[in-house]
User: Fold this.
Amino acid sequence: MNITVRDNPEQHRYEAVADDAVAGIIQYRDRHDGARVFLHTETMPDFAGKGVASVLVRQALEMERERRQMVVPVCPFVSAFLERHPEYKDVTERPTR
Assistant:
């Protein structure tokens, strides 16, 4: 399955697209200081269990790294992904609650 990730700023989300359908999303909000807060990750039911969310998070983090924007991982899935992938430490910031 070929997955393409795109930023959809009008909807405040990253979208994983597979087979011409949105397969997963990461909802975000932008802070006044330029950091992007990853709020929620969701995989659509038809694509569950196929690794869509991991591809989505990885590519979204890569996009933020290219933009030199910090990511605040509020979403539990993103936080767990980051624990397993410390190579993204340079692009992440601990959430403040």
The chain is about 25% helix and 35% strand. The mean pLDDT is 94. The longest strand covers residues 21-30.
